[in-house]
């Protein structure tokens, strides 16, 4: 069961997906619910969403075939990314895992959804795609401890985070620039309520390149757990409903025009994007 956004004649529509029954407009499941997926996250708790979908009549669902999924939403308050959070990935970059989380921000202009192209910038000769577990915040979160951190998370999603590694290699201070080209943050299409996922530590994240697993690892082997990342960064800044926290990659794949990048997290979903030239 998950929350998503589909294209319709009337624009983007937030939907509830039940794999056994199909897809239903959220407003048919929860009368009076907001008209946007961001609004649903802001106003409908994930447990309320799950309960409503389970109790909804079969008549409001239709077959999933033919549904065109978009990015769940395009304008979160912020996108917060984490670097070097798996020891093995840090070794790929001849880096050590930092003593505190390494983080960066991305603008909402970077957002794309499933099947939208990732464009390779003309000024870069080495772009990588990084599969990650994304956290979708559901409540205002500031100054929380690790034990209560996940109470503020609405759900999780698959993410592809892109980087111009050649630009970053010139100077680590170029991190923000290397992460902020258009199309450099794909997420969705599913936002799975936290209660539907089970322990996050048990999840396995895979970076795919042209349909083949390039690198995979378990969340349990992160240097900093998802709950630690939420708590740590909430001491710096508030998180707002709909904010995205991308928790780090098990491995980055070098992508070129004509390739297809992907992220697979069993129990959460699959995300795939074609790669195009400048």
From TrEMBL:
Task: Report the family membership.
Answer: Belongs to the FAH family.
What protein am I looking at?
A: 2-keto-4-pentenoate hydratase/2-oxohepta-3-ene-1,7-dioic acid hydratase in catechol pathway
Keyword Metal-binding carried by entry:
yes
Q: Signal peptide position in this chain? A: none
Which domain of life, per UniProt?
A: Bacteria
Q: Which GO terms describe its biological process?
A: small molecule metabolic process
Keywords attached to this Swiss-Prot or TrEMBL record, sorted alphabetically, are:
Metal-binding
Gene Ontology MF annotations: catalytic activity; metal ion binding
- Fumarylacetoacetase-like C-terminal domain residues: 78-275
Question: What InterPro entries does the entry give?
Answer: FAH, Fumarylacetoacetase-like_C, Fumarylacetoacetase_C_sf
KW Phosphoprotein (keyword) present: no
